[in-house]
């Protein structure tokens, strides 16, 4: 959990306050000028797209640091990539591409197992399937969009995850938002973790069920909420709930924490609630054979009712899946709108996932899968422990490849990002609204394709930049391990 | 006896009266206080005390832990999925080759009318070559959202290309066609705003309307009079028109009926009543108009008059993904407020290359549009006398929609009948056509029917074969 020191909180609030005051001043001048200049005739009588303070944050705060976000790249998102440089003539309001690129170390892409670039096993097979099936089927799964590849992948995913059957969707976001309304409706209760992803929130809102939130990763609070809700029943009528679904994620992408799955499953079983596990970041990345959070924490997949995941992160492709019992999957194939109306997943992308899973399971005849899994675990643990020794405030559990470094102050966000880029390390910084206002952070994603030299270079750069901008909130350990190393050599 | 009681009472009364009238000797505020005033003051105090006392309410007892335990043990949840699947869904055909005009199903060659491959780009060699180059350079996935190193130069090139074709200043590229519209609508319309939508819009639009939490009014399918009536009613009720955003949401070619929206009339109404138009051109982009620009070109309306255009690229452009264009303000707003743009990985780069390849092909070969139109006209003529089914789609719509002349009573039984027809057509005549599917969450009231997606790469013999097989099967089914 994040421990926010008082002085840091005060300085952060003060900075935001100052930015707010300046922003309001500028808005005042903008209004004055607006009165002087006449409004365009074609917009007269229409309400503007953004009224009043709705886009204040965007106009006055975000645009100043716009160059830290949305950086285009000109190569595959592998461990080293080419970042395109952009320039601006009007103080960051608009950015223009230039022809120059700089080769940077990639610490921001979700490339956990290193399948992002062309792979020796996967790419030839993907190109073969592209020539055979073309880039798209132009049709929905239930009409003319199911190919042999889709059927093969569904069986493979079910086998990999350990459930009876699986169903594919073309995009991870749609998997959540179009699925939750299908399995629960009015009269049901959804209890979701307070830090769940936007797609889950949208799906829960779109379903019409009542939504309650429990404190992030706290099974005792979940139990309290469950007891209270079952005893009270539906709001106002107090009828008993039709069903209750608890939604949690495997690895929370902004905290890097693993879910406390065994305790949460125990609570849900006791109160007969259904569980929905979103393994977008954890499938393929954690666990001895890459099977996700269930394998890592020793939970039987049969205990989780619905397991969801995406192929974007560890498998280097696109799309999502749901794995559950045969009855649930049969029902979804009949009524889920994303299956009935959306274009089916692109066949080369399906082939990429099939090949990637085969590599992970070792079915391609080599041990590359096991090597990748071992390497990502080593890399994550090494990087996290080194950062903590340097005195950074790093969140997240051991074995998780996502590690946020806390920055807090709004000015440190662009400082960290720009300084690192100058030294050819590309990092991702996240601020409001993806995180709470005071808790801005830089998020590092480790990949199995990072070598030890890459990580050491990254550590040097981050340490230098951290000293420069003052984000080493904790006391650093003295570097005695270096001396020990020297002694050993001698 | 009675007289003695009377004497006692009279004596008592005399005592009391003298006590009351006796001056106590106290003078407060210049008023002499007599005895009776003390009694009256006491009475008033008693009255005030009774009034201010709270009425007796039984105390609230919260549930004890034991009671909560009992309630939790008694509660029985419904099963996660309802068992209403007694109707077994017919398994969709599994394709064994590319979804072009001819496809292999179960080892047999089948004529394919189930893919929205309007320009015949599935299997196009140039597009495939550019995809192969893209795959070798970028890999398959983009491994990140647009804000976190998921923006590649192919995405920016694709956006610029599409914007140039449509004639708008900029364009935003989404990673999936299905979620484009249901992310765009909530980005622009919030609680308190007003949306007027056609009742025949497809599920993704309906979901977008729900997520936006705005007030939604539906007008009769493609009926401009109904639309005008609703617009007037809304405008007469709004008190502050400059503070409430108002939108009309329509599709260019409706998936559920094959009708085309009358854009000229709609633009006239929108300008009169100060609404903005959100137009979903998934099935008309690359199809309508002399150079494939879409409904605006076909109707002769300048693009600036349409505020927001969205389209899925999984149809004419034979790739995947979605796009949304408008003025500069519209596109920039989306890049920061649209959830399916921000919180999800970007479009795989090879699909963006496929889109660029498709646009290049369209620009170089505008005759493909004439071929498509000729195919549609031919097939419509052939299908004009099918027993039991009537074509209701627009003559220029590449989705040919046939509905039942007489419904069998419910959607379920209609679906059974139509499914049996398509099944027979596939098994006996090797032609793949499809029925419209309706999810249980779909609120569209339009009738079900059969759909044929015509492609520019269908030959005349393909079209003739499809029409002949459908006529044969329908004659048997409706005899």
Automatic annotation (TrEMBL), chain A:
GO terms for cellular component: endoplasmic reticulum membrane; serine palmitoyltransferase complex. Residues 104-462 form the Aminotransferase class I/classII large domain. The chain crosses the membrane at residues 6-25. The keyword Lyase does not apply. One of its GO terms (biological process) is ceramide biosynthetic process. It catalyses: L-serine + hexadecanoyl-CoA + H(+) = 3-oxosphinganine + CO2 + CoA. Pfam families: Aminotran_1_2. GO terms for molecular function: pyridoxal phosphate binding; serine C-palmitoyltransferase activity. Keywords: Acyltransferase, Lipid metabolism, Membrane, Pyridoxal phosphate, Sphingolipid metabolism, Transferase, Transmembrane, Transmembrane helix. Pathway: Lipid metabolism; sphingolipid metabolism; Sphingolipid metabolism. It is a single-pass membrane protein. Belongs to the class-II pyridoxal-phosphate-dependent aminotransferase family. This is serine C-palmitoyltransferase. It comes from Rhynchospora pubera.
TrEMBL record, chain B:
GO terms for biological process: ceramide biosynthetic process; sphingosine biosynthetic process. The keyword Acyltransferase applies. SUPFAM superfamilies: PLP-dependent transferases. Its EC number is 2.3.1.50. This is serine C-palmitoyltransferase. The keyword Lipid metabolism applies. It is a single-pass membrane protein. It is an enzyme of class 2 (transferase). The lineage of its organism: Eukaryota, Viridiplantae, Streptophyta, Embryophyta, Tracheophyta. It comes from the Eukaryota. It is found in: Endoplasmic reticulum membrane. GO terms for cellular component: endoplasmic reticulum membrane. Pathway: Lipid metabolism; sphingolipid metabolism; Sphingolipid metabolism. Its cofactor is pyridoxal 5'-phosphate. PANTHER family: CLASS II AMINOTRANSFERASE/8-AMINO-7-OXONONANOATE SYNTHASE, SERINE PALMITOYLTRANSFERASE 1. Keywords: Acyltransferase, Lipid metabolism, Pyridoxal phosphate, Sphingolipid metabolism, Transferase.
